Amino acid sequence: MPNKNGSIPQPSLCRLAIFFCILLVLCYSNTFNASWQLDDSPQILNNDRIQISELSLNQLYKATHARIGSNTLYRPVATLTLGLNWYYGKNNVFGYHVVNFLIHFSTCWLLFLTIKTLFSTPRLKARYHFTQIYFIAALAAILWALNPAQIQAVTYIVQRMASLATFFSLLGLFLYVNARLVENTSKKYSLFLAATLSYLLAVFSKENAAAVILCIPVIELIFFQLTYSRTIARRLLLGIFIGLLITILGAFSLRPELFDFILYYYHNRPFTLSERLLTEQRILVFYLSQLFYPAPYRFSVEYDIALSTSLLTPRTTIPAILFNLGLIAAALKYHRKMPLLSIGILFFYLNHLVESTIVPLELIFDHRNYLPSLFIFLPISQFASYLIYERITSGTIKYFMVLFLSFLLISLGYATYHRNKDWQTSETLWLSALETAPNSSRPYASLALQLAFGQKRSVENYQKALQLTERSIQTRMARKRLDAAQIANIASIHTYLGNYDTAIAYYHKSLELLPNDIKAQYNLSKAYLLLGAFDKVEQRVRKIIIDGYIHADYHLLLGHVLLWQAQPEKALPELRQAMRYAPGRPDVLIALANCLSKLGHFSHANRFLHLARNHGDKSVVLSLAMIENYLMAGKRESAVKELQRSLAQYPIPFLLQPFNDQSGNRFRRLPLSEEIIRPFIHDFLQKQYIDTTSMSQ
């Protein structure tokens, strides 16, 4: 509405931000308790380095080196935020989802501000009224943020790496454009410095952000160069070349093994480099179709994508190449007349260079579109603005146009909300994927894992899991020799069924296909443990450690085996190493305490046992270990108090169950001294006039 002076006031940024936030909260309201998925477990739940227990420099440093099996920096900005999440909320998903949502909202708002700032550049200045500018920027930002294509980068917790990289990339561009617009020299260089810092934060969140530097010369061409000449062309090419050089050097500085990584992983993929390049042309077209036709059923964590083995197979390969080249050519040709169209197209393709070209990643993932799609809706928003503010004169038609846009936003929001339902549990996610990709192995394998290792474990579910795993081996896989992993899963299921010899045979079969599979090596060692073959366990685990693989579990298992072999002096350094890598884990603390107790260091053992209890351990094994340590230290009264505490929690048969179990499962626990603990409990119960016949149950 016009004010008293007859002019139209600028919209309130605060109200607009609140509007954005409300819309996004409604769309993502069903995600804040969505379960851990996919890489969340290895990257967070089973990653000791992420699980910081105090805000010390050592712990924070550890979180920035969170890559399993390596001591190098690994996306330190993103992993540090995940570590802080763990410190404040442990494994409660709510806090992680809140942070992911706030990053998404912040990126949406920053996108609005960036687009608004672009209208102050020489190419666009004075071409639009501020109401049109606000309309275009707001509509483009909210179309991007509400699109279900962005779900995987928001709801999938570990893909905070992608969303943080996008936020800092966009922040860098925003600061750069502002630096180009200010005249004050000191402020200009301060903004350039801040933009550089933002770029580094983006790259250290996820490496694919390195390509965003290539967008700087494009922004210069589209928004700051009003005339086109050979000099400008040379500068543009030089800028792109320098950007590519910085990107490549930056990638190799972060990952010195990148070249070997590329060669190795192409040997482990069911496609060659040329097949990937050709297939990605069709996938890029598919990504665009998802953005502009975002029906929930078109999104999945797994897709059936046929390989392009040549230009003619399948027949859609050449049309896809021509379509992509045509869009890029049109963006370059019409960059003066249609700058918003050009930046949307060129930004999309430039930011797909890392993940959609030669790097041997899996072919397709939704979150790869999060950064490239930032400006993709600018042309649509510009066209809607043209219709409403310039073309349509009828008030009624304008009213229906506004209704249509409102319906579009509601539809997008509903699609996002509906698709987010699939992310509630691992089962719902993979059942959805099975509908989208019935010819892919991963949905079958993942559902099998849910049945075999989920919360509802039973012999019936184990049998169903075996059937699903065998089905997964018969279908198309995302990696060569992925059947090795599936065979290892079959082995794990047989381990839980108690078929240890069968499990060991399957593990050996898996390792014949993939000898360097450390997870299979480790699980094979645990299967040997359940058979009581301690020498084989020790031999295999020592080899894993000698080969340079770093994890608390390896040292813990080795220490565990040495304790069963009555070699506590050899177990002690291994258990200390385990505690170094996982200082707060109760199982590590209890094992170390048991070792110290056997070496006569009873007070130290008692301290670690209480520390394990303070970290939440309430197991029978902890209670028995405390009783044993007190008795060995000659503190019978303390042992009696601990026994009384235990009897208040557990029935007698349950308390004695570790000693009554004669299956291979007994080797899962620590070698507690039955000849010390059982007579003590027997004597105590006799004095308390308790029927001791229950002790034999």
Could you characterize the architecture of this molecule?
The protein is an all-alpha fold. The chain has helices spanning 13-28, 40-45, 57-64, 76-89, 93-118, 130-146, 151-155, 160-181, 185-203, 215-224, 230-254, 258-267, 273-292, 317-333, 339-350, 378-391, 395-420, 426-436, 441-453, 459-473, 482-496, 500-513, 518-531, 534-546, 552-564, 568-581, 586-598, 602-614, 620-632, 636-647, 652-660, 674-687. Helix 18 packs antiparallel against helix 19 (441-453). The longest helix has 26 residues, at 93-118. The protein is elongated, with a radius of gyration of 30 Å. Residues 1-7 and 690-697 have low confidence and may be disordered.
Number of strands: 0
The helical percent reads: 55-70%
- Which strand-content bin applies to the residues? under 5%
Q: Residue ranges: pLDDT <50 for 5 or more in a row? A: 1-7, 690-697
Q: With helices defined by DSSP (H or I, 4 residues minimum), what is the helix count?
A: 32
- Which structural class do the helices and strands define? mainly alpha
Largest sheet: none
